Amino acid sequence: MSRLRRRPGTRPTLSIHSAGGPRGTGAAGRSPGSRSGGGGRMLLVLLVLTATVLISVDARLADGSPLGDARRTVAGAVAPVQRALGALAQPVRDLSAGGVVARDDRVAALEAEVYRLRAQARTAGLDRDRAAELDALLGLVSAGQYPTVPARVVAISAGQHSERTVTIDAGTRDGVGVDMTVLDGDGLVGRVLAVTASTATVQLILDPAARVGVRMVGSAQLGIAHGGLATDDHDVLGFELLDPLEPMVDGAVVVTFGSPDGRPFVPGVPVGVLRAVDGAYGATPRTATLVPYVDFTALDLVGVVVAAPRTDPRDLLAPTPAATTTPLAPAPVVP
């Protein structure tokens, strides 16, 4: 840059200064800011290298490091800050943990409800069946005027040609005694064979040793029903008519004849229906198959008759022909 200088009494002279003077660029005219920037970068690099070396040495020397005091000093200074930050963060952690616990509790409650509803759905049919059994039992004992203790079958000992018994959950403390009649809503089940304070063993009429005095509804003819028989599809009883000169009709309904004082069998309890009548008129023996009304493969709710009825209810309790069991095999009327 050129500038004219003029002194009094002299000619103006031209003075030329280099552009790289005090405010210029170049090696001689580099600004202080430029020099400090380069030095700062160099200082930063030296600090990083120094820190790296110190960390390596401290890690190798472990507890014996000469930097241990400095590290502990720094840790002591930083610890209050860490505790403060932890205290600030704790409510957030607690809220998060509480949300997880609440969610887990809700999931567990929902799972329990699902299991309960599934169990209820599975047992709904069973409850309906038991309600129907109870209705049938109440209807039978009410019509026959049988004082009865209800019980449930809790164990069964069954064999096709061996002892046929069940255990019920009622005993002497419930008023149950030996040789009492046991029935359900369909008819005769058996008699009490043995009893304890809380349970009783019931001999089913299917037992080979069981014998029941019965009579045919309508003709009032007497016979003996006994266990120990079976077909491919049914548990059945044998029947023998006492008087060979009396008619025996296929499809006749048979009820209990009754015992003195109602033990072991009270009168009038439906037993079953006659099928497959055999034996000519006047011949002995005259027999038939007696198909029981009770389904012994599904025994559940039963009643123990604790006293005999005042009157014989056989005609009142006898099922109608439409309610009898499907015949095992058709047979003609034998005169």
Explain this structure to me?
With 335 residues, this protein is α+β, with helices and mostly antiparallel strands. It has two domains: 67-144; 148-323, Thrombin, subunit H (Beta Barrel). It is built from three helices and 14 strands. It has helices at 32-61, 68-144, 314-317; strands at 2-5, 13-16, 148-157, 165-168, 181-183, 188-195, 200-204, 211-216, 222-230, 235-241, 253-256, 270-278, 287-292, 301-305. A six-stranded antiparallel barrel has the order 3-4-7-6-5-14. A hairpin with a 4-residue loop joins strand 9 and strand 10 (235-241). Residues 14-29 and 322-335 have low confidence and may be disordered.
Give the CA-CA distance, first to last residue: 157 Å
Query: What is the approximate shape?
Result: rod-shaped
- Please identify the top-level CATH class of the largest domain: Mainly Beta
Write the CATH fold name of the largest domain.
Thrombin, subunit H
> What's the architecture of the largest domain, going by CATH?
Beta Barrel
Q: Mind describing the biggest β-sheet?
A: 6 strands, antiparallel, barrel
Flag low-confidence runs: 14-29, 322-335
Overall tally of structural domains: 2
Helix content: 25-40%
Within CATH, the superfamily of the largest domain carries the name: Rod shape-determining protein MreC, domain 2
* Structural class assignment: alpha+beta
Number of helices: 3
Measured by DSSP, the beta-strand proportion falls in 25-35%
